[in-house]
Amino acid sequence: MLNGKFVIDAVAHAFNLTEDNFAFPKHARPITDMIYGVISAAPEGYRLAPEATFRDWDMADTAAMFFRESDTDVAVFHPTPIFAYKDGLSGVEKGVDALRRYPQRFIASYAAVDPLMGKKAFEDLERQAELLNPIGLKLYPTSWVGDRAGSWRMDDPKIAFPLYERAAELGIKVVAVHKAIPLGPAPTQHSFDPVDVDGAADAFPELEFQIVHGGAAFTEETSWLLARHTNVTVTMESLNIILANQPRTFAKILLGLLHVGGAPVMEKLYWATGTMQYHPRPCLDMFEDFTFPEDLLENYGLFGPIPQITDRDKANMLGLNYARAHGLDVEALKAGIKGDEFDTGASARDASPYSTTSVADLVVG
Known about the structure:
The protein is α/β, with parallel strands linked by helices. The chain has helices at about 25-40, 50-55, 60-65, 90-100, 120-130, 160-170, 195-205, 220-230, 240-245, 245-260, 280-290, 295, 310-325, 330-335, and strands at about 10, 75, 105-110, 135-140, 140-145, 150, 175-180, 210, 230-235, 270. The chain has one domain (about 10-345): TIM Barrel (Alpha-Beta Barrel), CATH 3.20.20.140.
């Protein structure tokens, strides 16, 4: 726990960044380089050599970063349907491995499919429903089908809506969509703008629509969505990286998300790091110490002032919001991890970054 706050990381990944996994090198290589660029910009002590990054990350290393080297308590695994890579980048099989090896720590997984694959998308969803018993469906607006990249919209009644309907029939009540951050040089056709979540949220009020990376771009559009739809939320993946490097910029983004709906919007935000792509510890440490700069508070709050962030707000964002929204019993989660292999009584501060992983000797700064 982080000073008494239970931490649920809403997005965990384990990427295969080897060249052997490239299906479309033209796009996979720039995405891989972008991921390495993010790691290279980490605070001192958290940067990895290229050979430590461009590999097939496993769940043991990912779990060590989360649960031995940071104050993260539990996490939710997200496979990814980024088929510029053969396995989608964060493969479904790793989700299966996470749930099997660390069921008290990786408390759930999402399914991940590409809607432009047509019938195969539904077959993949059915298969993953059996393998993962997923609580959510993870989608990406860019698709790699055939020999070129394409895109689709969340509010498309022919492509997207039948997939939501089938997910709901399978008991999946959450649809998470990657927005804001384009992937590689693929043409986006505005598909990373979250405006298309509007029609989806309206048509399926029984589903929760999570905007992943919400606020990293299109902050004002996302703010209006959060204020207008009770079933739209944001996972803070990538905002954690901005916080670790540019806390004032993070403050502007967070205040931008609150600008329309005010302080109640803080109950619709979920902590997420996307680890393994960034070490979770510096992000958590920065968030624990974070406050809004007073001069910025004066500039936000469209219909009323936004108050200073509190410890209660942080506890909500770090885990309680996600638990309430998804029916998770935090006390049961605490009991489940008590005395497990990661609960050694040692502080996360006792382990230097990556020291408990297989790349301990490849930290470069």
